[in-house]
């Protein structure tokens, strides 16, 4: 019998288990992960950015937890010798019509308490000499980190503090009793007073196994990347982002310097035909059928049909992808780019076609379900873990 079992061994699940043990070392805590290693999906395929929180609605969980999380993540990396760098980023407008949106982002950054500065085109070029723009914003607190290394450290600390870690353990059934919950897996039966669902791409399914309706469904979007050949890395010094389309829920293709020195270009955003589908050819009938029969997906698709078509064109046409990148750096050529890894974003979508814009954490008397935690979840992981552990302590009457 455990006091709490966390389902999901990504960065949010591990940070939650760690926060529980930090707050009360006497708790019996376990983490169940269906894969053979930690952080194998969203965490292990993300861009490695320590986000500032500039894009998020002031007062939202994302804004609050990302701002504090960017600070605590840097501190955690410093204390544990994890590769990271607070290098900053620029957000640039390349057309006059983007200037009002750039101003809105600047004002949102101020409202969120983030250190930002307006830049002229000439000032942008002092930071990123190869960028084409008419104006920009500098965000000083943005950084980069090795989140796989962060997860390994989380797991190490959980074990050090007495937690139990189970890999290759897939949850198949959840049965709720009066005082505990029985979790049936491929590797045996576990019992817990409080269940914490941090299953990412499968969080809605775990919630439903626990008889909890999240009022949303996970729809997987694949983000595809290229990377610059080593001899072309001089084109990018730090992180370069476009002004996002305010009518489209994704940020657009951008340039990111990774902690290992690689420069990633992307991502686009296309529907994945499998929740863990990192290749165009990956397909799972159950995953596909769930999306195709979900009314919310079709409402979203019709609302953003033009943008969606452009994303699909970029997915199959390198030339189209390159043209998008050339809006930021005109010198980039198709021959400068080679395919890189893809990631899949677990995006919660409402029945009316609206995206769940904020983190979605649902608490019941015996469980906590994290049903929407895409970017900036890695940045915010320490703070999300603290928030979930607080909910868990309330349920445990501690």
What class, by secondary structure content?
A: alpha+beta
**β-strand number:** 20
Major sheet size, sense and barrel closure: 9 strands, mixed
User: For the residues shown, what is the average pLDDT?
Assistant: 94
Low-confidence stretches: none
Tally of DSSP helical segments: 11
| Shape type | globular
The CATH homologous superfamily of the domain at 2-45 and 148-215 and 357-396 is termed FAD/NAD(P)-binding domain
Q: What is the CA-CA span between the terminal residues?
A: 17 Å
Strand content bin: 25-35%
CATH class of the domain at 2-45 and 148-215 and 357-396: Alpha Beta
- The CATH architecture designation of the domain at 2-45 and 148-215 and 357-396 is 3-Layer(bba) Sandwich
Percent range of helical residues: 25-40%
> Could you please say which CATH topology of the domain at 2-45 and 148-215 and 357-396 applies here?
FAD/NAD(P)-binding domain
Radius of gyration: 21 Å
Structure description:
The chain is built from 11 helices and 20 strands. The protein is α+β, with helices and mostly antiparallel strands and 398 residues long. Among the domains are: 2-45 and 148-215 and 357-396, FAD/NAD(P)-binding domain (3-Layer(bba) Sandwich), CATH 3.50.50.60; 217-224 and 264-355, no CATH class. The radius of gyration is 21 Å and the shape is globular. The relative contact order is 0.19. The model has no long low-confidence stretch (mean pLDDT 94).
């Amino acid at each position: 019998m455990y006091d709490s079992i966390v389902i999901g061994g990504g960065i949010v699940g591990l940070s939650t288990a760690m926060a529980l043990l930090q707050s009360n070392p006497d708790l019996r805590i376990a983490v169940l992960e269906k894969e053979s290693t930690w952080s194998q999906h969203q965490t292990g395929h993300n861009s490695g950015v320590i986000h500032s929180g500039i894009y998020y609605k002031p007062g939202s969980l994302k804004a609050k937890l990302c701002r504090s999380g960017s600070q605590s993540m840097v501190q955690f990396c410093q204390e544990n010798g994890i590769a990271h760098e607070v290098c900053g980023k620029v957000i640039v407008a390349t057309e006059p019509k983007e200037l009002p949106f750039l101003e809105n982002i600047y004002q949102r950054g101020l409202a969120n308490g983030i250190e930002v500065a307006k830049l002229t085109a000439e000032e942008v070029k002092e930071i990123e000499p190869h960028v084409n723009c008419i104006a920009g914003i500098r965000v000083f607190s943005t950084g980069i980190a090795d989140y796989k290394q962060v997860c390994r450290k989380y797991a190490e600390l959980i074990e050090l503090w007495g937690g139990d870690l189970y890999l290759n353990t897939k949850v198949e059934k959840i049965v709720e009793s009066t005082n505990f919950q029985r979790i049936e897996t491929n590797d045996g039966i576990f019992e817990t007073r409080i269940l914490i669902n941090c299953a990412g791409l499968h969080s809605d399914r775990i919630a439903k196994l626990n008889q909890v309706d999240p009022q949303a469904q996970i729809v997987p979007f694949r983000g595809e990347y290229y990377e610059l050949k080593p001899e072309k890395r001089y084109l990018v010094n730090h992180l370069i982002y476009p002004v996002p389309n305010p009518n489209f829920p994704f940020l657009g293709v951008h340039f990111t310097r990774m902690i290992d020195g690689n420069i990633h270009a992307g991502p686009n955003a296309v529907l994945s035909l499998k929740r863990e589908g990192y290749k165009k050819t990956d397909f799972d009938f159950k995953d596909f059928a769930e999306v195709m029969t979900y009314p919310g997906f079709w409402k979203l698709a019709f609302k953003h049909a033009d943008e969606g078509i452009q994303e699909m064109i970029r997915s199959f046409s390198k030339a189209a992808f390159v043209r998008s990148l050339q809006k930021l750096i005109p010198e980039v050529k198709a021959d400068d780019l080679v395919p890189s890894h893809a990631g899949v974003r677990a995006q919660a979508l409402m029945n009316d076609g609206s995206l769940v814009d904020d983190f979605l954490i649902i608490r019941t008397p015996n469980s906590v379900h994290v049903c929407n935690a895409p970017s900036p979840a890695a940045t915010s992981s320490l703070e999300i873990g603290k928030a979930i552990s607080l909910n868990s302590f309330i349920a445990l009457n501690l």
